[in-house]
Amino acid sequence: MTGPRPPADMRYFMALWGIADEFGGMTTMSLYRACIFLEESGIVAPILTFEPRAGYDRQLQTLRSHGKTTTDVTVLNPFAYYREASLEAPGAAERFQAAGGLAAGATSDDLDDDGTPFCRTTFHEDGKTVSWREYLRPNGTAFLYDEYPTDADGKKSGRLLTLVTDRGEVVGRWTKAADFYREWMVELAGGHPTTVIVDSAFASKVIAPLRRENIIKLMVLHNAHVAAGGDPVRGKIATGQQPILSSVNDWDGIVFLTDEQRHDYEARFGRTTNLFTVSNPKERADTLPDFAGRPAQRGVLLGRLAPQKNLQQAIRVMAKVRETLPDATLDIYGKGPDEAELLDLIAELGLEETVYLRGHIPHAADQFDVARFSLLTSRNEGQPLALMESQGRGCPPVSYAIRYGPRDIIEDGVSGYLVEPGDIDAAASCIVRLCTDDDLAARLSRGSWERAERFGKRAIVDRWLDTVGAAWSRRRQRTDVRALSLQVQEIVWWRPGILELVVRAGWKQQGGPAVEQQVAVEAMVVPRSAGPASSIPASIVETSAGSLLATVKLDASSLAAGVGDSEEFLDVFCRIVGPDFAAMFRVGFPEEASSVPFATPQRALSLRTDS
Asked: Which pTM does this prediction carry?
């Protein structure tokens, strides 16, 4: 480890929203991280979930049978926790009384794994609208009431959650479920230094507003932050990531899985002190599987049969391979909504004896031990675990060089092959080489296995503890800055194509050290279609509490240098960057400007490259 160490009495938790019966990669990784924290450093890190559940015995049994977790990893949930807790009312006991405006109709019971009622829902007379829920102990007494009272017109007038003892005495009340969940987390921390590593974007909505000096929160971005594999500078921010990336100030750490993604984020939004990179862990095989056990022309692909995985391309790659190697095969392991469409494509291309959809099987990664190559043709990823598993088993991958992961995982020509996305011919050529050149395939097999050591358990736990230590050491320097804004106050035209922006940046600071001397403003000039963005620092003219005035000069002709001949417009943005917050704004025109060159129909500023 390097840098500050976490306190010896630090408590650790991993956070998900829930654990589904058909768990995915995010759940698997959260559980596995908890396992290796314990195995490598003796750190107990329970999984936190927030969905209304009585427990996870059945899911955990399945996960253990699939080797995804161990009996040492526990799951804590506020409903299961308080269902079993011995609760006492604080101070003078107050008996629970139902809220007014509750209509009683039909009821429905949800059962726990033992068949005991856990949640009793009472509906309005329409039989659909929930009036209230009672969460029940195994002995049938209520421990939590979740009420939805209505006004005189029958409209919902709020929500009230009440935690009660087995004698019906009030322990606590909340008007939002998220407040109830956060108070439970504070109780679990017990005043100790505490780290919460959040894997679920949905759970982040609960955890982000929690601010306690003894608790730090680290948000892991498991997926690309730009929707549908779009351009990292111009693309739309993915819906699930938008609330997180618009409020980085809520987090002690935003954790990217790859340096490439973190650098792309910094290029767009700016560099702050709460950005980190920690790869997912993926332990390699203890020894390199015997090369003689790898059929010469067999490939394996692990992935969900879904649009993001772009498996139509994998099938077309194999159609090209088959032109040279009629006996080559690809076994695809996974399930998903695209199955029927993929089967139709296999039949259309006559690949029934080349590409096989094998469905979901336990321990599917074992198939990498007996394959000559693996294949990945996804549109985008956060960090493809299948590539890491393939390398860890000495099965060299052939992968589209998408964002994000392949470039960090594969050393091209040493541990596998990287090809440009959509280049079916190049991918097929790499597969043919691996299937026909035993020496090459054996060399890349060993190269894959050796490179996988970078993602081993010990290395990744150390990286996590470095990150926790850094975030903890900075917690008292964290700021609480809200309502970032930027207004163009004046545009000064020096001559055609050269202008100066005068901008006012504003913010509201609710806590932490004063930031006025730490805030920077930069202009970002982005070619509309393609090409790198340019960043031009602004000069600070004056600062005051919650505000600064800055100027920045732009020269369209110099900014257009290196831009493609077909590019006509350069779009202008400004970003505000502080110690642990950042935001980017499209530059508009002052209200009094009635006619200004290069205005878009939305009155945003663009520069013409021929200016």
From this structure: 0.90
